[in-house]
User: Which sequence fits this backbone?
């Protein structure tokens, strides 16, 4: 049985439409007009226990809104959500003791106290036993290398250090389901990598079910085998990350290094779209079905030193997918 | 990995106790601020003494009564001093704006996902504020009271002391609940600061902070007895000053408790309704 079941989930926000300027504001007082925004529109998916699934989508696609409905912060407008058999919007304590939501931009640590005070507070809120608390703390502070920082005021910690404590605070009660909303946002490359590795290792060791949203393709590529792609509130893809490329990219890249150089653009355009051209190197974008023909032509027509056929980088595929608006 | 094994059940109140103690620690970082506040809050008292002195002098010169609705000049000053004590319980600064900010900016999210009751969390948070306030006041209030001792003419009975203490808890509860309810209006209205200002002025007046409520027209008195705001200041002061007949004490406490109950129910309903509307912006 799936640990997370989402069926035809929709969330419609009703916001007041305001005409521009002072006149519009006055008019709005008497004659209110509302616009409906379908933030999430008929989304369905199932997630099995222990899976680490990535949510992909541009800003405003509905990723975070979906996570908020999964964690019971928002009531769905229609559709059903079941997590571990609970209906999240009922916000039963029994449910809330078994999941965690980490938001990269929000923090739960108390600003004017050392991090350990906030951690202890969470221990008590979740009713974690002393032994379990000590065990998790020893393990996590070691893994994330923040043991020495426990006694320092939160306001004096760096963003990366705070994120590590956020994670610890959210994992103290050993949630069975973990929602991570942009956990690496704003972090430098090293900190991003640290957090990423920790999440991967944690999922592997504990079999915690994790849903991750991120703007950074690196996060998704490093962590998730399966992705759910959401655009304009609708699910447009659900499957293996590799399959995204196959499904949405109709082209491949052929990079060629020439022995002697001096190849002109005109000579190449008949084979495919020239993406890059220097004296000795060229990158061509070629439709999948023409790859074989094009590479043969290159090998016979030119003096080739090296030839490479690659998939279009996933970032580019997804970027295009969003830009063009997949149906 | 079993979650159930990792959790044990202490009393459900234990976590709120930890919230209280954690917040008290954090608030202690600002104790210097509290000390300044505690000293300078008495400045308006100087103005009040001059003002009421002028009023009573004018009545004396005019050959009029030396009491106003049963209050002598001394009583009037005692009333204003005691008001500081009552407000030390019923005022919960920042509650309304914090709650409305949590709602408007989506900060509420972090409480909604935890096994915790947000309104009780707020109560503990404010209680911690009161604890630090009174910790500091323990040093700043006695000298002021000592300086003012000549104004105190009534020695309260044991019954009056008891009723006074209970009325202070009522004062805190009413103040806390009222501020929470107003704060939760942010579920419906984006900007409540002007409305808030009006409401706070009404509360300020009807709680008797500006003038004792018995000075107001007799026709208003039944309304004032039943209004919740008097229980935030006026009644606790009058009880300790011995201005309330013994037989009326139970009735006053009863009405106070009634308002606590009514406000509590209203806050629960508003909370439930508000969450349905909540849009959890940001993040």
Assistant:
């Amino acid at each position: 049985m799936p640990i997370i079941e989402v069926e035809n989930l929709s969330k419609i926000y009703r916001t007041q439409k305001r005409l521009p300027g002072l006149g519009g504001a006055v008019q709005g007082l008497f004659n209110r007009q509302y616009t409906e925004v379908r933030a999430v529109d008929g989304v369905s998916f199932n997630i099995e226990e222990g899976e680490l699934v990535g949510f992909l989508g541009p800003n405003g696609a509905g990723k975070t809104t979906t996570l908020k409905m999964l964690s019971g912060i928002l009531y769905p407008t229609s559709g059903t959500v079941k997590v571990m058999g609970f209906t999240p919007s009922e916000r039963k304590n029994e449910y809330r003791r078994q999941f965690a939501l980490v938001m990269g931009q929000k923090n739960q640590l108390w600003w004017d106290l050392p991090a350990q005070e906030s951690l202890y507070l969470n221990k008590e809120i979740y009713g974690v036993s002393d032994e379990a608390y000590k065990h998790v703390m020893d393990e996590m502070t070691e893994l994330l290398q923040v043991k020495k920082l426990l006694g320092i005021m939160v306001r004096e910690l760096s963003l990366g250090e705070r994120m590590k404590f956020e994670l610890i605070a959210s994992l103290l009660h050993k949630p069975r389901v973990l929602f991570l909303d942009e956990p690496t946002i704003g972090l430098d490359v090293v900190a991003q990598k640290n957090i990423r590795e920790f999440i991967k290792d944690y999922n592997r060791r504990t079999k915690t079910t994790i849903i991750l949203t991120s703007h950074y393709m690196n996060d998704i590529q490093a962590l998730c085998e399966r992705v759910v792609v959401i655009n304009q509130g609708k699910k447009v893809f659900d499957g293996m990350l590799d399959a995204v490329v196959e499904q949405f990219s109709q082209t491949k890249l052929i990079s060629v290094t020439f022995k002697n150089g001096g190849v002109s653009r005109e000579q190449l355009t008949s084979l495919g779209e020239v993406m890059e051209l220097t004296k000795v190197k060229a990158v061509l974008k070629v439709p999948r079905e023409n790859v074989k023909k094009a590479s043969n032509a290159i090998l016979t027509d030119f003096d080739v030193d090296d030839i490479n056929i690659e998939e279009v980088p996933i970032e580019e595929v997804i970027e295009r997918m969003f830009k063009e608006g997949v149906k | 990995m079993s979650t159930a094994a990792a959790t044990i059940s202490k009393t459900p109140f234990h976590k709120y106790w930890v919230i209280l103690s954690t917040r008290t620690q954090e608030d202690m970082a600002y104790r210097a601020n509290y000390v300044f506040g505690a000293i300078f809050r008495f400045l308006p008292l100087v103005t009040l003494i001059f003002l009421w002195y002028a009023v009573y002098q004018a009545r004396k010169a005019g050959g009029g009564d030396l009491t106003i609705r049963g209050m002598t000049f001394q009583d009037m000053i005692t009333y204003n001093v005691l008001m500081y004590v009552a407000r030390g319980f019923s005022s919960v600064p920042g509650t309304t704006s914090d709650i409305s900010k949590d709602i408007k900016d989506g900060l509420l999210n972090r409480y909604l996902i935890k096994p915790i009751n947000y309104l009780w969390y707020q109560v503990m948070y404010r209680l911690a504020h009161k604890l630090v306030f009174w910790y500091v006041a323990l040093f700043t209030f006695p000298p002021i009271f000592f300086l003012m001792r000549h104004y105190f003419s009534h020695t309260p009975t044991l019954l009056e002391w008891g009723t006074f203490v209970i009325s202070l808890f009522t004062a805190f509860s009413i103040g806390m609940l009222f501020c929470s309810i107003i704060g939760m209006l942010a579920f419906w209205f984006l900007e409540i600061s002007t409305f808030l200002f009006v409401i706070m002025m009404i509360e300020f007046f009807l709680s008797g902070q500006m003038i004792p409520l018995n000075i107001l027209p007799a026709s208003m008195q039944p309304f004032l007895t039943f209004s919740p705001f008097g229980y935030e200041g006026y009644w606790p002061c009058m009880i300790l000053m011995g201005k309330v007949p013994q037989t009326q004490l139970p009735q006053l406490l009863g009405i106070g408790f009634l308002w606590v109950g009514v406000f509590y129910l209203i806050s629960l309903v508003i909370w439930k309704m508000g969450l349905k509307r909540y849009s959890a912006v940001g993040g």
Observations:
- Chain B has one domain: 13-277.
- Chain B has a mean pLDDT of 90.
